[in-house]
Every structure is written in C-alpha cells, then in structure tokens.
UniProtKB/TrEMBL annotation:
<dbReference type="InterPro" id="IPR050446">
    <property type="entry name" value="FAD-oxidoreductase/Apoptosis"/>
</dbReference>
<dbReference type="InterPro" id="IPR029324">
    <property type="entry name" value="AIF_C"/>
</dbReference>
<dbReference type="GO" id="GO:0016174">
    <property type="term" value="F:NAD(P)H oxidase H2O2-forming activity"/>
</dbReference>
<dbReference type="GO" id="GO:0005737">
    <property type="term" value="C:cytoplasm"/>
</dbReference>
<dbReference type="GO" id="GO:0046983">
    <property type="term" value="F:protein dimerization activity"/>
</dbReference>
<dbReference type="InterPro" id="IPR016156">
    <property type="entry name" value="FAD/NAD-linked_Rdtase_dimer_sf"/>
</dbReference>
<keyword id="KW-0809">Transit peptide</keyword>
<dbReference type="Pfam" id="PF14721">
    <property type="entry name" value="AIF_C"/>
</dbReference>
<keyword id="KW-0274">FAD</keyword>
<dbReference type="Pfam" id="PF07992">
    <property type="entry name" value="Pyr_redox_2"/>
</dbReference>
<protein>
    <submittedName>
        <fullName>N-acylamino acid racemase</fullName>
    </submittedName>
</protein>
<keyword id="KW-0053">Apoptosis</keyword>
<dbReference type="InterPro" id="IPR023753">
    <property type="entry name" value="FAD/NAD-binding_dom"/>
</dbReference>
<feature type="domain" description="Mitochondrial apoptosis-inducing factor C-terminal">
    <location>
        <begin position="304"/>
        <end position="348"/>
    </location>
</feature>
<dbReference type="GO" id="GO:0012501">
    <property type="term" value="P:programmed cell death"/>
</dbReference>
<keyword id="KW-0285">Flavoprotein</keyword>
<feature type="domain" description="FAD/NAD(P)-binding">
    <location>
        <begin position="8"/>
        <end position="301"/>
    </location>
</feature>
Amino acid sequence: MTNLEARYDHVIIGGGVAADSAARAIRTAEPDATIAILSADPHSPVYRPALSKDLWTGEDPDPESQELHTAEETGATLFTSTLVTELLPHSHSVVTARGQLTHYKKALLATGSSARHVPDVHDDRVVCLRTVGDYRHLRGLAKDGARIVVVGGGYIGTEIAAALTRTGAQVTLAHAGQHLLEHMFPASITGHLEQTFSEHGITVVPGFRLLGIDTGDELVLHSGAAESLHADAAVLGLGAELNTNLAEHGGLDLDLGAVVVDPYLRTSAPDVYAAGDVALFDDPLLGLRHVEHVDHAQASGAAAGKNMAGAEEAYEYTPLFFSDLFDDGYEAVGRLDASMEMREVWNQDRIAAVVHYLEDGRVEGVLLWNTWDSVDRAREVIAASQNGQLTPEELDGQIAPG
C-alpha cells in the first residue's frame, strides 16, 4: 500500500461521487496539484446509484462496470480502507485510524451518510445497501427462491425491493406506513405503485414497525403489532445518518444536523470545504437545506473542487433526484412532502403526471412522474412561484405531463 505523504495540496475525505467530482475539478483547474483521497471504503469510488438501479436491471451486474476511475483519470492518490479519525483545522492536518498524519493546504469533507441499522443485530444475513461490498453480499444472498424481507417503504426500500425481483427471490416489502412512499407522493401514485409491486410478485406489508430481529436458523423480524415475518435474509432501508463526527469534533459549525457552508462551500474552519450529503447550503430557490442525492453530490463536489483550486464561484444550484420503479420513472426538484398541498396534472391516459407541492401558496417542489426533459422548466416554475410571479391557479399549464 502507498504510504501517505507528509503533505498534500488537497486532501479529500470520502470516496464517493462528491469526492470524485472534486478531484476532477481540482485537476482541471490546477494540473500540478497533489491530491490525496482518503476513503474508508475498501473499494474504489463507484457511481453509487447503480447499486440499487442499473446493476440489477442492466446487462452487467459487475460493480466494476460502475467504477469512476478517479485516481487513474485525475492523478490523485487514492487511499482505500483509510478511515480519518481526526480533522485538525488549527494545524491543517488529518489523522487516520492507523495513526498516520498528513497536512493539507485545502481539505474537503465529502463523508456522505451511513445507513441506519437495528441496534445489537450482528448477522451477515441482515444487510444495508450502501457500498460495493454490500451489493456483492446481497447478490450472494438473493438466490432463486430465497425469502428476502426488505424493511422500509421509502426511496431506497422501494428501489431495492424492485431490484430483487430480478433475482428470482421471494420478496416481501414491510414498512411502517400505510402506503408506499406516502411521505412523498399523492394517493393516485402510491396506489398505482402498490398495484405494480403486487403484480411483480412483491408482498407488501404495511403498518410494520420493526422492533427487533431474531437470528436463529432463519431470521424472524418482529413488529410493534405483534406480527412476525420469517426470512432467509433481510435488507434494511431505514434511511441514513449524516457522517458529521469529523466536522463536529473538529469544531466546525453545524446546523440542522449538517455542516454549515458559505456560498463557496467553505466551512467555518479556514481552508476546509464540504460537499455532498453533509453540506448545509443555501439553495437559490429554497433556502438552507442539505440534500442526499447524487446530482447534488456531483454538482457540489465539482464546485468545491474549483474553489479549492482558487476559483470564487458561488454554488447556486437546485439539485434534482430521480428513480425508476419497474416501468415507471420520475425526476423531481425541491421538496416533495405529502403533507403539503399537492396539485396534480395528468395526461389523458393517466400514465404521466406533474405534481406541484405548495406551502403557503408557493411551490416548494415539483414531481415529474413519467415526464421527461422538464427539470429546468420545473426550476423555473419554482422560482416564479417563490417570487410571487405565478399563482397556484396558473400552475396547471406550465409543464405538460408526458
């Protein structure tokens, strides 16, 4: 293994899409800079959305097909299986779990998020899907006929359940709510999704609030309603927690559970930047927020890298997110919260829709359901509504569904 040098121009902490984008931006702007990428993951950076999407539905299930080739294409030195345990802004240095110390001129926190687990359950048949190792392990468990319970009816849980149907496994999707993705979508879409999942052989179990898992010869998952599910393997889609320990212990300012950054993605510590999931940034349309999706990771990573290399370019971007669930797909911008007022516009055959999410009469988010090439227009609608230039009554004709 290559040893850490005593000093680098740029140290990037994290091994995901934001780290990759930052390294590319630094190399373009500063060709002679030295760059170290310190990743706790034992694998090279990959395009992480593929772990629950393309690798299951495409022709190539090998995660190496999704490698970002960061080191080869940027000249950065990549250190995998390298956990950074201390960020020391006062001395412009970081310390790894092996006790290695290196100094930086500029550092980037791109530490992302970690999946939530069930406390005190340690069994290799209970998995989360966040890394290449997780994906490979789940592939091994998802044999033809295996009983697999996915816990969680949100973004990641629904994607994993849909993906697993490609393996021949018997898939059950258990979630605490009454309807799939009910926190984001109107009833017209959640009802359609439940029918689609059922048609693809998935058993959907609503109202299942996981309390614990027994790990005997088979797994037994217990809920608060005294209901139990038996399985050969379980996949937890219980959300994620931001990896902000380094920032917190390094004395950086945090708010809303994320790392506070200025318009240039600089943190409160000199020469330390943050990008991706952990950054609390000022969205030009929606104000302070942190976003846990790949589009933001790519865009903010690139912006941070440019600024680390000397640019002074404000990060003025409202990211999108997207998913595919069997034959349906969507893109979305802003906040999708089903507790808001939702105004739906459907096409004639009710296959495609545009849903506007309003709070106090202003659009906070737009869902483009089976509707494509409209993300930029959705941002324009949000901006016009936020500025008082578009009333709720004028929304229906702004974006054509389909």
